[in-house]
Every structure is written in C-alpha cells, then in structure tokens.
Amino acid sequence: MKREFLEGLGLEKDVIDKIMEENGNDIKAEKAKATAKDEEIKTLKEQVNIANKEIKFNKDMNYE
Fold first, then answer.
1. pTM
2. Considering 20, 22, 30, 35, which has the largest number of Cβ atoms within 10 A of its Cβ?
3. CB neighbours of 47 closer than 8 A, spacing ≥ 6?
4. Tens-digit pLDDT string for the chain (64 aa)
C-alpha cells in the first residue's frame, strides 16, 4: 500500500501513519509465514532425496 494512495483519499497524516504501521506489521507476519514454509519445503526435499537414495541402494542390492 502506498502512502500517496491514502493521501489521495483525504486521510489525515496520523491516520495514514497508523494504517501504514498496521500494513507493515501484516507484511512482516506474512513474510515470516512464507519463510517458515520455505524451510519446511527445504526439509521435505532433503527427506525425499534421502528416501530416493535408499530406494536406489535397495534396488541395486536386489532387495524387495
């Protein structure tokens, strides 16, 4: 959200400041959620790679 947009609506500076602060807090919270999901995805990819290596090893050893 841009400050200019809110100014164009005729809002007072203190109101705009409060809106911008709250918007910033929302953005930070969503970024934190995205970072947590990125870490989860990274961990799951690592687990898949390990599982695939174990599967390949077992196939190479003719285990069923």
1. 0.69
2. 20
3. none
4. 899 999 999 999 999 999 999 999 999 999 999 999 999 999 999 999 999 999 999 888 875 5
